[in-house]
Amino acid sequence: MQSLEFLDLSGNNLTGKFPTSLGRLKNLKKLYVGWDYNSFEGGIPSELGSLSSLQLLDMRLCNLTGHISRSLGPLKNLHTLFLQLNHLKGKIPSELSGLASLKSLDLSINRLTGEIPESFSDLKNLSLINLFKNHFYGVIPKIIGELPHLEVLQVWENNFTFYLPESLGRNGKLKELDISTNHLAGLIPRDLCKGGRYHSDAELILRTNPR
């Protein structure tokens, strides 16, 4: 099994603690363990941080609890991290800034809190950020708008305040932005629509913020 590169455990009725022995699969590139029927006990095992070849980790909807493991930070080849629809709490660890290849990050529908880390500025390849339906607060940092490949930003149903970063939309690639049901105020960034940069097929949702 040491040569295994693809493992899909999703859509079963698996229970108990997540097997830490999966951390021995050094050649594993894609790991799917979530969706529907699986219901594991506990959190993300730190042993997954040793899967140096891992490119995709999908642990959505499998009853995860606890905090996002800092051990995921060294996964330099990881381009997709899906942890949505669980019961994760606490802050986003700054160690995730080590995910240099990350393109898609989905932490939505959990119990996460705190601010978006400034260390996200190191995630230059991010194109999708889903943080909606959590308890995040504070300002949406300007580094989010400076991500050169960002196409989707969904942060609705949180507690973000202050203003949208002026840099938002400046990359000319943003296609979907949903900031509804927060506590944001101020002006819509001019670069969001300037010169037709916001695509004709794009979606912009701003409702339920202060006037």
What's the CATH topology label? Leucine-rich repeat, LRR (right-handed beta-alpha superhelix)
CATH class: Alpha Beta
**Shape from CA axes?**
globular
What series of H and E elements makes up the topology?
EEEEEEEEEEEEHEEEEE
**Biggest beta-sheet profile:** 9 strands, parallel
- The CATH architecture would be Alpha-Beta Horseshoe
Question: Gap between N and C termini, in Å?
Answer: 58 Å
Beta-strand fraction estimate: 25-35%
Number of E-type strands: 17
Average pLDDT across residues?
Answer: 91
Structural class: mainly beta
Descriptive account of the structure:
By secondary structure, the protein is an all-beta fold. Helices cover 2% and strands 25% of the residues. The chain contains one helix and 17 strands. The strands form three sheets. A nine-stranded parallel β-sheet has the order 1-3-5-7-9-11-13-15-17, with no helix packed on it. The chain has a six-stranded parallel β-sheet with strand order 6-8-10-12-14-16, with no helix packed on it. The longest helix is centred in the C-terminal third of the chain and has 4 residues, at 142-145. The chain is globular, with a radius of gyration of 18 Å. It comes from Parasponia andersonii. InterPro entries: Leu-rich_rpt (IPR001611), Leu-rich_rpt_typical-subtyp (IPR003591), LRR_dom_sf (IPR032675), RLP29 (IPR053213). Pfam families: LRR_1, LRR_8. This is LRR domain containing protein.
